[in-house]
Write a structure and sequence with these properties.
Distance between the termini: 55 Å
Radius of gyration: 21 Å
Structural class: mainly beta
Strand order of the largest sheet: 1-12-11-10-9
Shape: globular
Helix content: under 10%
Largest sheet: 5 strands, antiparallel
Number of strands: 32
Length: about 425
């Protein structure tokens, strides 16, 4: 297997991390049992301007990472048994000077041995791979490898055999006059010591709608006749320029053993979805041409599978020209997609997950209110809501990242406004999932 990485690893911020090791001996904070949420930090970066988090549950601990001021990646960990939260650690200093850094928030994995793997793109030019010491001491030395390949929006996935996949969008046109964003991935079979060459798995070669926007990507375990697989949902854009004319909702999955792509009907699409017939096969919702309105659907499609059947449920944001956003869910019945199930409240999906009783559950947000819904076999039934005081909710996700391990808490991020001067005024923390009717 050919490697695309240099063997050298760079030790980072030794003095800062040494101080962090001393601070780790002190009790920083614990989950507030008298409140539905606990604020861990107030330094979410305005350079990112989106509430994006990756979290991971492993070995009784929940890790999560975010971009702090000037896009410097931060990380913390909470002990699920005691509720104790470690003092956040800055694992790399980038000090962005630009106002926008949409593509560059950190994402992460935690392997079965507890080692933490953080991935962060740098302006679609390269990928920084940061790895903790074995066992996951976040206050120890972090080592970095730079992958010199244009990458954006990295999606890391850890499979049951310990393989790591990192999917990413390749931005092929920074000038945006003829935007293309095919989907690629790399993988490692040895815990991140070496990585494969890039593999292209989704492209569009038959029209000018070539920007692929992945809404969500999750690992689903082997279920019945379904193999262990990586689920993908998303939309398309690109007509008239970058991020224009969003249309359609698609769903596909990749068998992690064969690395072949499949549609909901289990049709073998090979290792690359590219032609018109293949794209037609994975289209869940055809919105038609959307040139008269820039968006027919929103960016945030999501997915989860039924633990009994393995069939997927997809949630998406349909934009009605007269009524605006309508959050809608669709269930696959083994042969076809069912009738759309719109929800009365909420405009943006933050997450879909299976709760402790095996129920398919979704969280959607509108302003400072989080709404919960659950599939009862025929429709999405309202569970309740959480009204977050003094903040606009951007994201509430179930920690665990759907890679075969039991989830722990929920992680929330406040919506960040687009302002010129970075400021430590935006909250990140844990939410206990309490919804009120």
């Amino acid at each position: 297997m050919k490697t695309i990485l240099t063997a050298a690893a760079i030790s980072l911020c030794a003095m800062v991390l040494a101080l962090g090791s001393v601070q780790a001996q002190e009790k920083y904070k614990t989950i507030d049992k008298n409140s539905p949420y606990t604020v861990v930090a107030n330094d979410y970066s305005t350079m990112c301007a989106r509430g994006v988090t990756y979290s991971y549950y492993q070995n009784g601990k929940t890790y999560f990472t975010w971009a702090g001021l000037y896009m410097n990646p931060q990380i913390t960990v909470v002990d699920s048994a005691t509720g104790e939260i470690a003092k956040p650690v800055q694992i790399r200093e980038y000090n962005y000077k630009e106002r926008w850094a949409y593509h560059d928030y950190p994402t992460m994995l935690v392997d079965k041995k507890g080692t933490v793997h953080v991935f962060m793109a740098y302006h679609c030019q390269k990928l920084h791979y940061l790895r903790s010491q074995k066992g996951g001491d976040i206050n120890g030395e972090w080592k970095e490898t730079v992958i010199e390949h244009p990458t954006g929006y990295p999606f890391p996935i850890l499979t049951s055999d310990g393989s790591m996949f990192v999917f990413f969008i390749l931005n092929k046109d920074p000038k945006y006059d003829r935007p293309e964003r095919p989907l690629y991935y790399i993988y490692s079979k040895d815990g991140g010591d070496s990585w494969s060459d890039t593999v292209r798995c989704m492209n569009r070669d038959f029209d000018n709608v070539k920007e692929i926007y992945i809404g969500s990507m999750k690992l689903a375990p082997k279920q019945g006749k379904y193999p262990e697989r990586i689920l993908l949902t998303g939309t398309l854009a690109g007509v008239g320029g970058h991020n224009q004319c969003h249309k359609d909702i698609y769903y596909a999955y990749m068998d992690v053993k064969t690395m072949k792509m499949y549609s909901a009907t289990k049709k073998d699409l090979g290792t690359l979805i590219e032609g018109e017939d293949e794209w037609r096969e994975i289209t869940l919702l055809d919105t038609g041409e959307s040139f008269t309105r820039p968006y027919a659907v929103g960016h945030n499609a999501n997915v989860i599978t039924d633990p009994k059947t393995g069939h997927p449920m997809v949630g998406y944001e349909y934009i009605n020209p007269k009524k605006g956003f309508t959050t809608t869910f669709v269930m696959w019945n083994g042969k076809r997609w069912g009738e759309p199930m719109p929800t009365p409240r909420g405009t943006r999906i933050t997450d879909m997950f299976v709760d402790e009783k095996g129920k398919l559950t979704a969280y959607v947000v509108q302003g400072n209110v989080l709404y919960g819904y659950q599939y009862n076999g025929t429709e999405m039934q309202a569970l309740g809501k959480w009204e977050a005081p003094d903040m606009k909710i951007s994201t509430v996700v179930r920690a665990g990242n759907y890679s075969g391990y039991k989830p722990a808490q929920f992680v929330f991020f406040e919506k960040v406004e687009n302002i010129k001067t970075p400021t430590g005024a935006y909250k990140v923390g844990f939410f206990d999932g309490t919804l009120k009717h």
